[in-house]
């Protein structure tokens, strides 16, 4: 791995533009349960309960179920890990231009990353379905727990929704376009802790590769895009990312 890691670090250092994508593997290292693995949250909860059509038909029931899921998702003491910090350091040093994440936990911002593109939204917030006013998810949870289900907007009175992309809901177009154009422009695309199976994340690295850029994959297991990768690092993201950043910043 050492050689691949050094070579990947050289590519990142020499690149003019670098984009990174993070997936569930970066969150699970902070103790956040994932959704899709064998003992992921979708084994405990029924995904249909969190579908957009359920939210529309029964927002009160949706919110009561959601409060339980939020408690499991963002338990106490969840903090950024070494991979989040390594990406924030890379960005601060000017070696990471765009950070895209599939994760909804807000841990990149907590680590100091500036304005990551959250293609699946941010579960730490609720947003008004009418005027898009956002509030902290804790406030929404408190109101639901106190009997206000569904919670409504204090400005316009419309129903609040967790500020994440639900099943059956379109990804935010603007964010998706920003992510795609960042991938197209990147000399190096760094895919971290994502199995690269779920669209649109799966096709983002392809934009870079199709445009002649290089792909670095850091993931414990082989990914769907590993065959395209110029540098395929099968490693723990909390070990490999800090080493990668350290090596990039060495010279
Ligand atoms: Zn509103």
Biggest sheet statistics: 6 strands, parallel
Structural class: alpha/beta
- Number of distinct beta strands: 9
CATH homologous superfamily designation of the largest domain: TPP-binding domain
Low-confidence stretches: none
Spell out which ligands are present: zinc ion
Oligomer: single chain
CATH topology term of the largest domain = Rossmann fold
User: How many domains, as an integer?
Assistant: 2
Into which percentage range does the β-strand content fall?
15-25%
Order of helices and strands: HEHHHHHEHEEEHEHEHEEH
Rg over alpha carbons: 19 Å
The first-level CATH class of the largest domain is given as Alpha Beta
- Cα shape: elongated
Alpha plus pi helix count: 11
Question: What is the distance, rounded to the nearest whole angstrom, between the alpha carbons of the first and last residues?
Answer: 20 Å
* Mean pLDDT across every amino acid position: 94
Strand order of the largest sheet: 3-2-1-7-8-9
CATH architecture of the largest domain: 3-Layer(aba) Sandwich
Active site: 120 (proton acceptor)
Binding site for Zn(2+): 128, 131, 153, 156
Protein name: Sir2-type NAD-dependent protein deacetylase
EC number: 3.5.1.-
